């Protein structure tokens, strides 16, 4: 008998799956019992990811080969749309943290509108809790299935939600200018992530319409108590990891009021640091960690404020947040296994 939770990581040959392996392998209360892949099923993890050389891991298998009776909890790092068909058929004894976008939208009509097809697991959707621990910690503790917040969305929500909730910032306009490293697009080969097409330049994409807007609308609207339609423009920048969101908002009390509100809201949060006046966050300062840095700056007009937020898309934006959620679901200390300091430079 072991007092460790036996976990499976679905999609372990992808970027978020590999990051889950990195973190879970050193988690004091988790043991990695199964790891899955699709095209890479049958391979050893250290062959797919040589940085895991020497780590004792089971081989990558297909999902059909997993013996679920030997598993207590599952992290699901699969592409969206595939995920809902997989998660709905998982045995009910499993606790699940899903990293995809499939279970984040509460309204099925919104899901169909933004993803272009009906949801395949609506019954399950009803019981899923939105996985942003800083907001839904109590509900996450008793959830069986949690939908991790998306990487861009976590960056923007953590920057603005408390101030929106307390009406320290106005619900309109909110403009979010966000930049992501290339691992945000996953490991599967795509033309837009080729070195020659990402390096030495950068561009916006999804301008005017990106599926993450639906998730932002849902959570901003709940916090403000009135419909919020934020502008959101993502950019792909030539770096491996990290997201920086620069958010432009209106706040009658100016930057000091916004900073004070955020500092109070996050005073006891283990992973969110509100920076002192005059400091701005950098992806360099959160890389490889579950930390989020938030800076607040006064714009030239007295009622315009700039809130900047940085996190590592693969850690706080995905796998670290997933472990944070699973720690809550399992009754473990929330920071267990994910309190590593950032890697700098
Ligand atoms: N990358 C990021 O920063 C973030 C990603 N996410 C979300 O997390 C999920 C995983 O992302 P990421 O790790 O980047 O993706 P990757 O493309 O890097 O990895 C996808 C994984 O899923 C497996 N897979 C693909 N198709 C299937 C299938 N049909 N059946 C079973 N397994 C399959 C792949 O196996 P194989 O390698 O063998 O093909 C691989 O292990 C996505 O939903 C993404 O949107 C969320 C937040 C941040
Ligand atoms: C750089 C890049 O391509 N990013 C992806 C977001 C990745 C992601 O994490 O999507 P979810 O949060 O919805 O799972 C995109 O813009 O679609």
UniProtKB/TrEMBL annotation:
One of its GO terms (molecular function) is NAD binding. Its main location: cytoplasm. Keywords: Amino-acid biosynthesis, Arginine biosynthesis, Cytoplasm, NADP, Oxidoreductase. InterPro entries: AGPR, AGPR_dimerisation_dom, AGPR_type-1, NAD(P)-bd_dom_sf, Semialdehyde_DH_NAD-bd. Pathway: Amino-acid biosynthesis; L-arginine biosynthesis; N(2)-acetyl-L-ornithine from L-glutamate: step 3/4. It is an enzyme of class 1 (oxidoreductase). It comes from the Bacteria. One of its GO terms (biological process) is L-arginine biosynthetic process. It is found in: Cytoplasm. Residues 6-143 form the Semialdehyde dehydrogenase NAD-binding domain. This is N-acetyl-gamma-glutamyl-phosphate reductase. The active site is at 151. Its EC number is 1.2.1.38. Catalyzes the NADPH-dependent reduction of N-acetyl-5-glutamyl phosphate to yield N-acetyl-L-glutamate 5-semialdehyde. GO terms for cellular component: cytoplasm. SMART domains: Semialdhyde_dh. It catalyses: N-acetyl-L-glutamate 5-semialdehyde + phosphate + NADP(+) = N-acetyl-L-glutamyl 5-phosphate + NADPH + H(+). Belongs to the NAGSA dehydrogenase family. Type 1 subfamily. It comes from Futiania mangrovi.
